[in-house]
Specification:
Layout (H helix, E strand, L loop, with lengths): L5 H16 L1 E8 L2 H5 L2 H14 L4 E2 L14 E7 L11 E4 L3 E3 L7 H10 L9 E2 L6 E2 L6 H4 L16 H6 L4 H9 L2 H11 L11 H10 L6 E6 L8 H8 L1 H15 L3 E7 L3 H16 L15 E7 L8 H8 L23 E5 H13 L1 H5 L9 E8 L5 E6 L4 H8 L9 E6 L5 E4 L9 H6 L8 E6 L4 H15 L5 H18 L5 H17 L3 H5 L2 H22 L2
Parallel strand pairs: 1-3, 2-3, 8-9, 8-11, 9-10, 12-16
Antiparallel strand pairs: 1-4, 4-5, 6-7, 12-13, 14-15, 14-16
Helix pairs in contact: 3-4, 7-11, 7-14, 8-9, 8-11, 10-12, 11-14, 18-19, 18-22, 19-20, 20-22
Length: about 575
């Protein structure tokens, strides 16, 4: 098979630029799950129809046409992945005008074509209106939700996810070529370690160190696994990254495979993510067609292929050993460690498990250098973090900020604060495994160490805003009910302890509890943290312990009337 070189990729970049140069306007319709569910693809179809009625030449796919076949002055209508501003969707971007239209409906297509595409005007009613000052903002650089973010992983969320050409245009796969042809596996591992990238799936283990451990493990067969099994309520970071830019994650996986000596890669994605799976399948197919996967990649001796395994939605399968069991066709339950997967993982072979966001950072680090990535974030938490900002906040959506950004900046400046005249009470991070952070920690920097100090965790990136109407005992009850239901039942501390805690919480919530029940809650929670087999059981008590720490008065208010009887 012919060798694929950096020169080949540069040629494809120039070919795509030649196509793009003939486009007068690009109309990008958000094609993330949320916007699609809200009718964005119907908006796209309506825009294409109205453009044609207006006599415009319309392109809907630059992938298969050469520059010679594209009419100068054409309008290119494409979809993207999730653009982040979910509450304002469906979103339509007009480039190069820098316009973002919000809450667009198919019936708006005629006006967009007539006023913006043909007359270069702006439709004020479709622009984002900031509720705090009543002003309307035209583009990303003006809208506070976007302007206060710093996007690395989400930088290319507006490209057409089904087009490998657009990814090439964004310097895609140059990092893999650099790693394969200019670096040794040891040098790739060292670069990742120097960058300070830590696992974004919740554990925060240094990525480069994990790669080095797997590289050092003996054996002719190794695996690299992408963990796309995010299951936290309200979390959709990994799903959105896969929907928007699957090639970035594939490239990260290719580099990881080269670094550790893996010949096979597995994507483990929950079946509830059909759009992410569909786009990933198309991307893998395009990579094989373009000789980026398979045998003797880029003319080297290295061979690597990727497959997909769908998960049934078990929360515990986010834990790497349970995930591995599931890929093997077994029941998804964790096992004791050591041995760690880096020594004995999938089918007993050394395996490296990284989550979607982690792998989404890899190509940029290799291309731009460890120092570039380490320039973002804090001393011990480098880079940026993607969060799904949800709950009682004015603007929910997908955001990306440097590590160390404060809760106040995220909730009030990016999220626009708590709506409807209510007040902020707390923020939940880390999903059902995390803890609540009260108002007095509003200026807490969001990073691994600082969150741990207040009894919470980073988790995979769920962040839920809680207003002053929320009863915290009921909130703890909700999360514990979830983790008890999702427990695999393999170990007694989680299986029995979680259930006993839930019974006590329900008793307290019904006004039948006592102070002794509160103390029993603490006792069982600490036992679960120490004795549970995996991260699910070890962190399941966090919502209870954190609400007890900061809102014990709400627990006491429920038990004291009962004790006076």
């Amino acid at each position: 098979m012919a060798k694929l070189t950096a020169a080949d990729v540069e040629k494809r970049i120039s070919d795509y630029e030649a196509k793009a140069a003939k486009i007068s306007r690009r109309i990008i319709v958000c094609g993330g799950t949320g916007c699609v569910a809200n009718g964005s693809l119907k908006v796209r179809d309506a825009l294409v129809e109205e453009l044609k009625k207006a006599g415009q030449t319309v392109e809907v796919d630059l992938e298969h046409d050469s520059a010679d076949h594209i009419h100068p002055g054409s309008a290119y209508v494409s979809k993207s992945g999730c653009q982040g501003f979910c509450q304002m969707g469906p979103l339509v971007r007009i480039e190069p005008d820098g316009i973002i239209y919000t809450k667009v409906r198919p019936e708006d297509a005629l006006e967009i074509v007539q006023e913006t595409i043909l007359k270069h005007g702006v439709i004020e009613r479709l622009l984002y209106m900031n509720p705090s000052d009543g002003k309307r903002y035209k583009g990303e650089h003006e809208i506070p939700f976007y302007s206060r973010q710093h996007r690395l992983v989400l930088a290319n969320c507006t490209i057409e996810p089904d087009s490998i050409g657009e990814y090439f245009h964004k310097k895609g796969y140059l990092a893999a070529i650099k790693a394969y042809t200019q670096m040794t596996p040891e040098e790739v591992c060292a670069e990742m370690e120097e960058s300070g990238l830590r696992g974004r799936g919740g554990g925060g283990f240094p990525t480069g160190r994990k790669w080095k451990f797997t590289l050092a493990s003996p054996g002719p067969k190794k695996y690299v696994i992408c963990n796309g099994d995010e299951g936290d309520p309200g979390a959709y970071m990994d799903r959105s990254i896969l929907e928007a830019n699957p090639h970035a994650v594939i490239e990260g996986m290719m580099i990881a495979a080269y670094a550790i000596g893996a010949t096979e890669g597995w994507f483990y994605i929950r079946a509830e993510y059909p759009l992410a799976v569909e786009r990933l399948e198309k991307a893998i197919k395009a990579c094989k067609k373009n000789r980026l996967l398979g045998n003797n990649i880029m003319g080297t001796d290295f061979c690597f292929n990727i497959d997909i395994r769908l998960g049934a939605g078990a929360f515990v399968c986010g834990e790497e050993t349970a995930l591995i069991h599931s890929i093997e066709g077994k029941r998804g339950t964790p096992r004791p460690r050591p041995p760690y997967p880096t020594d004995k993982g999938l089918w007993g072979k050394p395996s490296c498990v990284n989550n979607v966001e982690t792998l989404g950072n890899v190509a940029s680090i290799i291309l731009k250098g460890a120092d570039w990535f380490a320039s973002f974030g804090t001393e011990t938490s480098k880079g940026t973090k993607v969060f799904a900002l949800t709950g009682q906040v004015e603007h929910s959506g997908l955001i990306e900020v440097p590590m160390g950004t404060t809760i106040n900046e995220i909730v009030n400046e990016i999220g626009g604060g708590v709506p409807n005249g209510k007040k902020l009470k707390a923020v939940q991070t880390g999903g059902p495994s995390g803890g609540v952070i009260p108002l007095e920690y509003l200026d807490l920097p969001v990073c691994y160490e600082e969150l741990k100090k207040v009894g919470s965790i980073m988790g995979s990136g769920g962040m839920i805003v809680i207003d002053d109407t929320q009863d915290m005992v009921s909130l703890a009850n909700f999360y514990l009910d979830f983790t008890v239901d999702e427990s695999c039942g393999k170990c007694a501390p989680c299986r029995i302890g979680g259930k006993q805690m839930l019974l006590l919480l329900e008793k307290i919530n019904k006004g039948k509890g006592t102070r002794a029940d509160i103390e029993e809650l603490r006792k069982i929670a600490h036992a679960m943290q120490k004795a549970s087999l995996c991260g699910l059981g070890q962190t399941a008590p966090n919502p209870v312990l954190s609400t007890l720490k900061f809102y014990e008065n709400e627990y006491l208010a429920k038990v004291e009337p009962n004790e006076k009887k």
